[in-house]
User: Fold this.
Amino acid sequence: MFDLKIRNALIVDGSGNPAYSGDVGINAGRISAIGPKLPGDAHSTIDAGGKAVAPGFIDPHTHFDAQLLWDGQARPALTHGITTIVPGNCSLSLAPLKAKHRMKLVGMFNQIEEMPHIAFEQGVEWNWETFDEYLKRISQNLAINVAPLVGHSLLRLWVMEDAAMQRTASESEITQMMDLLRQALDAGAVGLSTSFVDMDETLQPVPSRYADIHELESLCSVLGDYGRVLQIVPEFYDGDLTVARVDQLADLSRKYNIPTTFSPLFVNSDNSDAVDKVMARVNEQFATGARVWPQVQTRPIDISFSFAVPSLLFIRFPGWYQIMRFETHDGIVAAFSDPARREALIAEAARLAPLWPRLILRQVNSAENQPLVGKTLAEIAEIRNSTPVDVMIDLSLEENLDAHFLAADMGHNDNVKVASLLNADNVHIGASDGGAHILSFSTYGDTGYLFSNFVRDQQAMSLETAVRKLTLETAEIWGIPERGLLQEGYVADIAIFDPNTIARGAEYYVQDVPGDGSRYVRDSIGVDTVIVGGEVAWSASDGYTSAARGAILPGAEQRA
Amino acid sequence: MSQADLASVRRSILPANGDSWESIASRELADLDNAVSLLQSWNLHVFMRPAAPEGSARQGNPILPSDVIFLEPPAAS
Assistant:
């Protein structure tokens, strides 16, 4: 007798081996039998009707750290077949964190991950300091598995206070950081994240960037004791710098016998050669025995913005970014309304003249401007006998800054090149940024897009390879045992989906962030049922369930 | 494949504690005239960054301990 039996399945087991027809039996949260026409009854049965049954997908680059405090289902990640998320990337986690540093961290999350202040104010009860306390806090009602990274910037803040953003650490401070990292790993952290590019809310480098190589090596020696992962954000905008970081990671990987990963690696029309150069170096370093996994996202880059909140799209325009970042709502309106300041902004925008005409007016509130929604700024400029940048400013003023614009297909949209990367042996599919940049783009649906675009439309990847990349390969890179494969004895994290229809839905704006905040999300298409730890966590027919079988991975008991 | 077999890439270093343009130039590029200017031109990702604020331990020095500093120009494309 099974607890749960999935019948009539197309089993895509995560190994990359050919799919086959069969059943999956589950007992006590684990796969207890798998194969054709399994005998035996079950307390509960799902007729998959020939749909694909695969291990639950693992999303290795997210920032759900805050959302998990008010939403243990990490909506809508589960609905896309994702059963495990990795938060704490880019040197930022929510622990360890002393009470006096809370607002500093909120500022960094706001600047780097575009998470609104008010979401923290309204959605977070600050009742932890240590990493262990944070994990206990989010574990209270967890429906999705969490493999948390601990952020290097947090270790520095805890140990060095304000000096974390001023200087290198002393030997004593490094020793304290190593101890703190051990505590986080003992509590269940999957590894350490650091950043070489990010800036805080005052546009100063984040604490991790003040670490010298001795400090980083010391922390990696601790990771080596536990066999855990180092994640970094390299200077992804420059090929030579990224190659230098690949070499740095390779040295750390070999010396301390740790897996390393960097994200993101984008393909743009102006950096195609750079990506080739980076991948050539990655492949060479793998051949020496190093493990340096570039993370590549599946989706093209689309960025939405309004002038009500800062957008990283404008970081290349200091005049614009300064007012978005540091001015109040009224201050921005005043800047746009002042002829001299407006003229200066328009002059600065001219540096990237091709961008503005192709922006699309995405959303407005006024009835007068509704007919313009969906048009490009070039089209609206023609109607108004104006220029695209003037139109963008005017619409923003007319809508009290609540006009939303879309910069679509900004890069990473060369299907041939991206498919080649996604298929590469040494490339890790990831970098979704789930839970971050919530007012710039939907970070959900990358898994559906992998299947719809690269497996079906481009026919660039087999179904089995796509599943392996999202499951077993990711579990192995991150040292997550007993997940990512449909095999007897493995934990029953399972996604059931129709391989002929799975896709990402259209991006839309929803008001479900604490403090009456909004965000962009996408629904899944073609995902039928998602099972975590043997229990149905979400199904297309019934929605979210009350199941709370999510676990912290690899977990406190796991040590290499 | 051994590390000795790796293809050559653009030469770079990670700064030593307290390094400045001048200290890197004198240590790594002692045989070059205008070494500081050359270093800065090869490392615009650092040179164009605002210097550390007044009162900071790194006041006036934009180089961070985690930076990659190139010791030669990019390869001709």
The first strand of chain A starts at residue 2 and ends at 11. The CA atoms of residues 149 and 190 of chain A lie 5 Å apart. The mean pLDDT of chain A is 95. Chain A has 18 helices and 23 strands.
